[in-house]
Specification:
The structure is a single chain. This protein has 267 residues and is an alpha+beta fold. The protein is built from seven helices and seven strands, in the order βββββββααααααα. A hairpin with a 2-residue loop joins strand 2 and strand 3. The radius of gyration is 22 Å and the shape is elongated. It starts with a strand and ends with a helix.
């Protein structure tokens, strides 16, 4: 019934979960939240936040707790952030000045925020880019149609008939299909609980880079028309910029660590 937003990232922490400093202090039947969050998607339109805060500082990332915080809670303020692309996903900053919530606002146990966070990120990193794959396929189909109908001078053949153009179209198609296979495999692995750390990271890296590169290639195929944003090809390039950084950058540390353990394992 309500729009939610996942409030994790902080200005000085980035993708480092262990560096989060937004604090949660128990005060009787309440918890006092203090700190700042940034790059929160849906922040300006959300009614409730799933917010990660540090409740037990000595435990590091194991001292995080998760809270459900209504955005109209006194002491909580939200400011929109200007971003390039993805106009349908407004981002914002969240300031928490002595925000008091009941202890029942905790999602899970005290100090159980890392588990909540990992569960949320597993689903997000693995599946959220499926929509971008669909959009990329749609953009590729429109580009192909444009090239088939586009002719230059007295040449009766279309741009799509040129071998160099066909090579690029085939390359984009192969890249997207490879990303789709990775996404399907990643979802299967996560759902069956086989590897919920490496696969979301691998899917995020593979799909986001494939979609971003494909958007750039498609715009280049439009040539001058792409510069004029034909079929929103330039807008698509802008929209893909965010997915290289959102939900953790494509250079996710857990990916390399997990792969090192996996591929150096002795038989």
């Amino acid at each position: 019934d309500q729009i939610g937003a996942l409030a994790i990232t902080e200005p000085e922490a980035g993708s480092a979960i262990s560096a989060l400093r937004t604090s949660a202090t128990a005060a009787g039947d309440e918890v006092v939240l203090q700190g700042h969050k940034t790059l929160v998607t849906n922040a300006t339109v959300a009614q409730v936040l799933l917010l990660i805060a540090l409740e037990f500082p000595r435990r590091g990332s194991m001292g995080l707790s998760a809270f459900l915080v209504p955005t109209n809670t006194p002491g909580l303020s939200i400011r929109p952030i200007a971003t390039v692309g993805l106009n349908g996903a407004p981002a914002g900053e969240i300031d928490l000045q002595t925000v008091r919530v009941p202890s029942t606002a905790r999602l899970g146990p005290a100090g159980g925020g890392l588990g909540v966070l990992l569960a949320a990120m597993q689903a997000e990193r693995t599946a959220i880019l499926a929509g971008f794959l669909g959009a990329a396929e749609f953009d590729l189909a429109r580009c192909h149609h444009y090239l088939k109908t586009r002719r230059q001078g007295g040449d009766q053949s279309s741009l799509a008939d040129h071998q160099a153009v066909q090579h690029k179209l085939a390359e984009i198609r192969c890249r997207l299909e490879t990303a789709r296979a990775m996404l399907y495999r990643g979802v299967w692995e996560v759902v069956h609980g086989h590897d919920r750390i490496a696969w979301p990271a691998m899917v995020k890296k593979t799909v986001s880079e494939a979609v971003a590169q494909s958007a750039h290639d498609i715009q280049c195929l439009y040539a001058g028309a792409g510069w004029q944003n034909r079929n929103r090809s330039a807008t698509a390039v802008q929209d893909t910029l965010a997915i290289l950084s959102a939900s953790g950058t494509t250079h996710v540390p857990s990916l390399s660590l997990k792969l090192e353990r996996t591929w150096t394992r002795t038989p």
